[in-house]
């Protein structure tokens, strides 16, 4: 267990030099002091002297004080600060109690090589950093050892690094990393980096205390919304409630008459009232009574969008996979099911509402915000202000829940367009209502599936046509492949099962009245619900045990078979259950991780659903932080259950009908089942992601359990209202 | 209008309108940002503080009704015996993910233990029903409350 000394410090003002292994040295660089105008601060503090060993963008070893590990990826609850710190510290040979972590600034040095930009998403951080950060730590260790060997005039091979010190084993001489910082900064970067053997890991594979949690128990952790800048004002933003509309008028005098209101600023499609504090801004905006021209989407309802989507789904789409002869196989099938599955628009509803604090000056800008994409955030502000990119500094913060929302930086661009109209630092906050109604939403999906089984229980034809918005087309157009959005078919094109005759198509249909975005679990959260529901439907129709059928269809996937066996054993699959109880299973491979999940439910006569327990067996290859894996599966399942039971975003007259937690309902503690996570270690496999895996499994495992309990097949999310239970 | 607010044992005089919620006084005037804004309508519990020892949603608690009463926030809850135990149990059970709701969770759990030193699962369900955790840390919150109640921290 690590000590509580490790704590988070805010980002440094230092502009990092690109190139992972460039050697720095010389001045002790300042860490960001909250509340000071940063550019001036940095210059003032550059006068401080001291030695600094900065072997690369991720590690700074000062001659005195804690070693700083710079976090290239955003901490939004998934525990990545701890995971990344473990990778660096393992090879650097320091304890987590000897380090502080800080958020990286927006800088190309922190580009995620797998994503080709600065990005935290797609359950990819650990996968993409698994080798590179260990190498960064190892390079630093080798340079520290070389420095010590030089100081003592001995062979490096006779020196050993351990817990932040280098020791010459023959003589027992020993120096701390801090004492070696100056000399280490003059060592050549090693050309060949030797990583530790996994057998020698002392940190990776253990569950130390997370580096970010202590500050989160006592109110000292700083999220973006907690930024405090001298002379800062606070503003509330309201955008046109209908996408595409614009502001036509407002009562400026009434707003300014509210005590504490300072200023009203506008954009073509939004208004912000700025005050000495948020209460003045909230009341000021109410008094401003903005008026809108709602524009062309002012009559659109969800029903219209779904009807259009349904019509679009009558036509063939872009082919993702085509194998064998699907029509023949379906015709010859012994058991056949045709079904339509529908998944709703979803808001992210992270508990920290959208907010951005900015100080925009003629010569530069500072931005205090929590973002999953610091590079995009920086570009947004540069575009909005006309400032050069290098004049924009992003101070990334802890994020109070991301779930994909902070992968878009539109709110940061909007805030910059407001903030450039004022001279002082300003914190601009979206109220909860704004956060939900102006979210960018998980797409609605309308999926038609026809599938069959032979009389031997093999799949005889599988035709899956999914219709929906393409997030990739807007957000990452280079990912599009001749009109195919790989995300729209992820989890559908490749399934765990043998499908000799398979056709998977994507019909792109973009609703005008809202914007779509990534949402936890992305493509797999959509498609695994469809695929795992259909497999279950086929099993029941053919009179086969759903778990046994999966084992048969995935017989060529030994990792899947192990997990199904484990989860069957742990959950007591097949045992006799009381009336109204049922168990459902879901199997999937996503983010390079295999998982098998069994959920047990009880449904009362009045339709009340109780999720009694969940068991997940998980094989994510090598495990860096086992307790982190467990907590992500637990939390991911709750996140997915919440969506599956209760959540949908609907439009009426172009406006989002949900606005706060009273009508966009979250699961509560009393509803949360016991969740048991069984990790099956697999050190030789490729490392997999974990942050979204639980969420992917939740809806299909729950739907299948509800069918087992009641005989009612849930082909549409959310479920609770289909049992007569309103979300409210 | 001027109001005297006693927060964490210190008296502050604030000059604001009487309808201003304590939440925004804590965050924007006293700069005690551990108390979080989540919904503004007492639906999420992120803004929970103690008023005379009772858990209260500070987003709907006006300054005029709070003046003269003892307000405790997450920044000082470690000074109560139950609060310190709850914080330690939260760390020992590694409850926290994003952490944004956890100030409120800890404040509510502390009030529960101050009133009910050994709560049953049903009492925990009841007391914690108003606190949303979007990361889904509920399983561990329950464990941590039992742990704090057992004094095994």
From TrEMBL, chain B:
One MF term in the entry's GO annotations: metal ion binding
Domain 2Fe-2S ferredoxin-type: 1-77
Assigned keywords, A-Z: 2Fe-2S, Iron, Iron-sulfur, Metal-binding, Oxidoreductase
PROSITE patterns, alphabetized: 2FE2S_FER_1, 2FE2S_FER_2
InterPro entries: 2Fe-2S-bd (IPR002888), 2Fe-2S-bd_dom_sf (IPR036884), 2Fe-2S_ferredoxin-like_sf (IPR036010), 2Fe-2S_ferredoxin-type (IPR001041), 2Fe2S_fd_BS (IPR006058), Beta-grasp_dom_sf (IPR012675), Diverse_Oxidoreductases (IPR051452)
Keyword Iron: yes
Keyword Iron-sulfur: yes
Membrane-crossing segments per the record: none
Pfam families registered for this protein in UniProt: Fer2, Fer2_2
Name of the protein in its database record: Aldehyde dehydrogenase small subunit
Native organism: Acetobacter cibinongensis
């Amino acid at each position: 267990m690590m000590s509580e000394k490790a704590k988070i410090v805010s980002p440094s003002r230092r502009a990092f030099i690109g190139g992972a292994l460039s050697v720095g040295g010389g001045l002790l660089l300042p860490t960001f002091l909250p509340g000071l105008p940063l550019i001036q601060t940095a210059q003032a503090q550059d006068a401080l002297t001291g030695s600094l060993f900065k072997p690369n963008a991720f590690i700074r070893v000062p001659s005195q004080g804690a070693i700083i590990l710079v976090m290239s990826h955003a901490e939004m609850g998934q525990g990545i600060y701890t995971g990344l710190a473990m990778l660096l510290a393992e090879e650097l040979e320091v304890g987590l109690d000897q380090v502080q972590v800080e958020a990286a600034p927006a800088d190309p040095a922190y580009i995620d090589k797998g994503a080709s930009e600065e990005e935290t998403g797609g359950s990819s951080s650990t996968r993409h950093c698994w080798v590179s950060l260990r190498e960064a730590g190892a390079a630093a260790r080798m340079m520290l050892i070389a420095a010590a060997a030089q100081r003592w005039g001995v062979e490096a091979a006779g020196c050993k690094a351990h817990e932040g010190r280098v020791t010459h084993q023959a003589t027992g001489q020993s120096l701390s990393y801090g004492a070696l910082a100056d000399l280490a900064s003059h060592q050549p970067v090693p050309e060949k980096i030797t990583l530790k053997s996994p057998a020698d890991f002392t940190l990776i594979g253990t569950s130390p205390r997370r580096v970010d949690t202590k500050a989160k128990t006592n109110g000292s952790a700083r999220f973006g919304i907690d930024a405090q800048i001298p002379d800062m004002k606070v503003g509330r933003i309201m955008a046109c409630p209908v996408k595409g509309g614009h502001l036509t008028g407002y009562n400026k005098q009434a707003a300014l008459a509210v005590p504490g209101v300072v200023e009203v600023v506008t954009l073509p499609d939004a208004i912000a009232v700025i005050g000495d504090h948020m209460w003045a801004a909230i009341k000021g905006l109410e008094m401003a009574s903005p008026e809108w021209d709602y524009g062309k989407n002012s009559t659109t309802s969800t029903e219209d969008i779904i009807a259009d989507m349904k019509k679009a789904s009558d036509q063939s789409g872009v082919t993702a996979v085509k194998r064998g002869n699907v029509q023949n196989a379906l015709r010859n099938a012994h058991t056949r099911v045709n079904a339509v599955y529908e998944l709703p628009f979803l808001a992210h509803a992270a508990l920290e509402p959208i907010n951005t604090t900015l100080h925009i000056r003629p010569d530069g800008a500072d931005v205090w915000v929590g973002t999953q994409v610091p590079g995009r955030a920086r570009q947004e502000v540069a575009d909005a202000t006309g400032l050069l990119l290098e004049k924009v500094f992003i101070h990334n913060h802890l994020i109070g829940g991301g779930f994909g929302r902070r992968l878009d930086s539109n709110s940061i661009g909007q805030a910059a367009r407001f903030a450039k109209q004022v001279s002082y630092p300003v914190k601009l906050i979206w109220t909860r209502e704004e956060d939900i109604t102006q979210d960018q939403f998980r797409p609605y999906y309308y999926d038609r599936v026809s599938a069959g089984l032979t009389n031997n229980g093999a799949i005889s034809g599988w035709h899956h046509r999914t219709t929906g918005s393409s997030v990739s087309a807007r957000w990452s157009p280079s990912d599009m492949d001749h009109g195919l959005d790989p995300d729209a078919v992820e989890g559908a094109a490749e399934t765990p099962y043998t499908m000799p005759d398979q056709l998977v198509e994507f019909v792109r249909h973009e609703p005008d009245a809202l914007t779509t975005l990534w949402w936890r679990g992305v493509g797999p959260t959509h498609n695994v619900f469809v695929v795992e529901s259909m497999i279950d439907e086929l099993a029941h129709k053919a009179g086969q045990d759903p778990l046994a059928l999966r084992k048969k269809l995935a017989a060529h996937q030994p990792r899947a078979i192990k997990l199904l066996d484990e989860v069957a054993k742990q959950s007591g699959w097949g045992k006799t259950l009381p009336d109204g109880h049922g168990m459902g299973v879901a199997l999937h491979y996503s983010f390079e991780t295999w998982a098998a999940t069994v959920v047990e439910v009880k449904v009362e006569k009045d339709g009340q659903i109780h999720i009694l327990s969940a068991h997940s067996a998980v094989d994510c290859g090598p495990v860096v932080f086992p307790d982190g894996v467990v907590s992500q599966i637990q939390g991911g399942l709750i996140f997915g259950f919440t969506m599956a039971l209760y959540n949908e975003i609907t439009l009426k007259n172009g406006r989002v009908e949900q606005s706060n937690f009273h009508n966009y309902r979250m699961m509560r503690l009393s509803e949360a089942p016991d969740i048991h996570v069984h990790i099956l270690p697999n050190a030789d496999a490729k490392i997999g992601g974990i942050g979204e895996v639980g969420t992917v499994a939740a809806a299909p495992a729950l739907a299948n359990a509800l069918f087992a309990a009641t005989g009612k097949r849930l082909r549409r999310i959310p479920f609770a209202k289909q049992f007569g239970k309103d979300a409210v | 209008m001027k109001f005297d607010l006693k927060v964490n044992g210190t008296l502050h005089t604030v000059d604001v309108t009487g309808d201003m919620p304590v939440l925004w006084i804590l965050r924007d005037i006293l700069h005690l940002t551990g108390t979080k804004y989540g919904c503004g309508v007492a639906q999420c519990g992120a803004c929970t503080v103690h008023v005379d020892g009772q858990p209260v949603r500070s987003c709907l608690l006006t300054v005029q009704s709070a003046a003269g009463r003892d307000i405790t926030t997450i920044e000082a809850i470690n000074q109560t015996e139950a609060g310190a135990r709850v914080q330690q149990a939260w760390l020992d059970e590694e409850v926290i993910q994003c952490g944004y709701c956890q100030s409120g969770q800890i404040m509510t759990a502390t009030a529960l233990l101050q009133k009910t030193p050994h709560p049953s699962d049903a009492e925990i369900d009841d007391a914690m029903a108003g606190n949303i955790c979007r990361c889904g840390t509920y399983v561990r919150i329950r464990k941590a409350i039992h742990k704090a109640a057992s004094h095994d921290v």
